[in-house]
Amino acid sequence: MSMPKFHRYALAAALALTALVGTAPAQAQQRAICYNCPPEWADWGSQLKTINQRLGIQVPSDNKNSGQAIAALIAEKASPVADVVYLGGIAADPARDAGVLTPYKPKAWDKIPAGLKDPEGNWFAIHSGTLGLFINTAALGGKPVPQSWADLLKPEYKGMVGYLDPTSAAVGQLGVMAVNLALGGTYDNLEPGIKFFKALAKNQPIVPKQTSYARVISGEIPILLDYDFNAYRGQYTDKAAVRFVIPKEGTVVFPYVMGLVKGGPNADNGRKVLDYVLSDESQTLWGNAYLRPVFAEHLSAEAKARFLPDADYARAKPVDLKRLATAQPKIIERYKNEVQ
């Protein structure tokens, strides 16, 4: 005897619901939360898309900066939301010391230079960039392209210079130190850098808290203290009227790091993501996005050919992460008290 139509529908609905419930946990596992992975920064957008394609793990983009990411991790310590975090190198040890990271040594750990990883595995570098001037030449209104830190203090650039907020953004804090070292300061003596930013404040700078790539491309911020990789992306990928300048006084090369969040809800997926960002494919992707991969052999000759000449990069020196991290609280305090 055939089953009444109503009962057949009810049974089909019940089976469908059972199947959905049964597969929900598996689907939920194919996710990892990354703090501070903005799609417009360092071409994270392409990287997250590739992670999804290769690993089947969805990693939503996130627009926090380094300081905001650490603040959120501390606030969520009792019930973590994130699985991995991406930070400017200056924030690496502070994040470790805050107890929000847990050791994990990814597959390519042994190849990472000693100075670019925490010995216990709390963080490791994945790529680096050189800080300088990301300039929209079309937005300068006929003014000459600045070639030095000192040029930024000229009245002709009033209201045209931007830098990320040093009270929370790693690149903002690095900007203070880069200028400071270039003008004769040290990791212990911040006076030249603070003096510069006090003078720059009279020139009405633009000080956003978040990555401002699009605002440079549009011309809203004509001159931004930012990295070479963002400028090259604008010039060669987005075909904008932008260029990168390494100030004649000098600058620094700065690594960006990742780490596994302590108690993250998707820790296994987080580990897979951390393994992937050091893989040959991922490192090549970083290189094609004009970053310098932590494994230098993955910067292609084609990408390297678009960088400024090596003679210009000779003015860029590696930053001392340990000393920079020690100076970070002083940078924030002095900027708040004397510049902001």
TrEMBL record:
GO terms for cellular component: outer membrane-bounded periplasmic space. Keywords: Signal. Residues 1-28 form the signal peptide. One of its GO terms (biological process) is thiamine transport. It comes from the Bacteria. GO terms for molecular function: thiamine binding; thiamine pyrophosphate binding. This is Putative spermidine/putrescine transport system substrate-binding protein.
